[in-house]
Specification:
Layout: H1 4-7, E1 9-13, E2 37-49, E3 54-63, E4 70-80, E5 87-92, E6 95-105, E7 110-122, H2 160-169, H3 176-190, E8 192-193, H4 201-207, E9 209-210, H5 212-225, E10 230-235, E11 238-245, E12 253-256, E13 276-277, E14 296-302, E15 309-313
Parallel strand pairs: 8-9
Antiparallel strand pairs: 1-2, 2-7, 2-15, 3-6, 3-14, 4-7, 5-6, 10-11, 10-13, 11-12
Helix pairs in contact: 2-5, 3-5, 4-5
């Protein structure tokens, strides 16, 4: 995956002396614990260097938040020429975004805003009876969840090639899990892993190649065409899809599908921090919906002799090596 989103983040081993003096970023949930929980830290933010007077600087970037399988806590703020009172948080759907205001920097000054989060993530739990899971009826899905049935940027679930393939792959008389298995197997058999720029679901289908974003986009598109809610999950250096299914007893749950490795549907060794979920965001300053929440920076007035130098902390990462068959 090649996105500056990944350049925002580093995850490092959790220290046993983690500070807890800052408020919990995702609410007041108790941090997850247990043998099946992975503890980590991630650092999110930027450094900025200017050669001349800079005024009205606004930076935004996504930050991790709580999910059923993850809890987070903000434990440190590394600030240079940034006031704590000028840090705000916004919610874009279910994704949390930090907004940093820097009123002015003098020539050759540097600013820094790096937020350090403690993250506890529970390991993936495979469904015990996947064949009994079903997609909820559309009429029973909450309005806020219906975005996961609709087309979005790079997920052209209403395209004729996608709807046709989704119908063709659906086994007669099969269960919803059978459908998902068919979509999953088709992508592994017909889309060759190849890193490159984001192209989307239709391009992945037509060209037969793509990386985790294309494979995920195609799987999500096929699911949505079959009226199965699905969305993208973003972790450092990678993304994968999950689908929303109803068990015979109990509440609906999200089930993972690892697209770039040969793990059975519903299984994954993934423990990296979840950065955001979703793939259709309305972001201030963008006229079109965005596939994910990107970091941004704007400067109202700048009088430098050279352009500002922005480093999203740390430098951009690289997706893990593709698996060999």
């Amino acid at each position: 995956m090649r996105t500056s989103l990944i350049g925002l983040l580093a995850w490092i081993a959790l220290s046993t002396t983690a500070a807890a003096q800052f408020e919990q970023a995702g609410g007041q949930r108790k941090m997850l614990t247990g043998d099946d929980v992975t503890l980590q830290r991630i650092e999110v933010g930027f450094k900025l260097q200017v050669s001349g007077l800079a005024q009205g600087i606004v930076a935004t970037f996504p930050v991790p938040t709580d999910w059923p399988e993850q809890t987070v806590r903000l434990v440190e703020k590394k600030l240079v020429n940034v006031k704590e009172s000028d840090i705000k948080f916004n919610m874009l759907g279910e994704t949390k975004q930090a907004q940093i205001l820097i009123r002015a920097l003098s020539p050759h000054e540097q600013a820094e805003a790096i937020l350090v989060y403690e993250v506890a993530r529970r390991n993936v739990i495979k469904p015990s009876e996947p064949e009994k899971l079903t997609a909820p009826a559309v009429r029973d899905i909450d309005r806020s969840m219906r975005v996961y049935l609709n087309p979005g940027p790079a997920i052209e679930s209403n395209h004729s090639k996608i709807t046709k393939l989704s119908a063709e792959l659906t086994p007669p008389g099969g269960t919803d899990w059978d459908k998902l298995d068919a979509f999953y197997d088709y992508i592994h058999e017909h889309v060759q892993y190849e890193n490159g720029p984001l192209k989307g679901a239709v391009a992945a289908l037509e060209e037969g190649r793509g990386d985790c974003e294309e494979m995920t986009a195609l799987f999500v598109a096929l699911c949505r065409a079959a009226k199965i809610p699905a969305r993208t999950v973003w972790v450092p250096g990678h993304c994968y899809p999950e689908v929303y299914l109803q068990p015979e007893i109990g509440d609906p749950r999200w089930v993972i599908a690892e697209m770039t490795n040969q793990f059975p549907l519903g299984e994954s060794p993934e423990t990296r921090p979840i950065l955001q979920k979703g793939d259709n965001f309305r972001v201030q300053g963008s006229r079109r919906p965005e596939h994910y929440v990107k970091p941004t920076m704007s400067i109202k007035n700048y009088n430098g002799s050279t352009p500002p130098v922005v480093q999203w902390f740390p430098p951009p990462g690289v997706e893990p090596t593709a698996p060999t068959n």
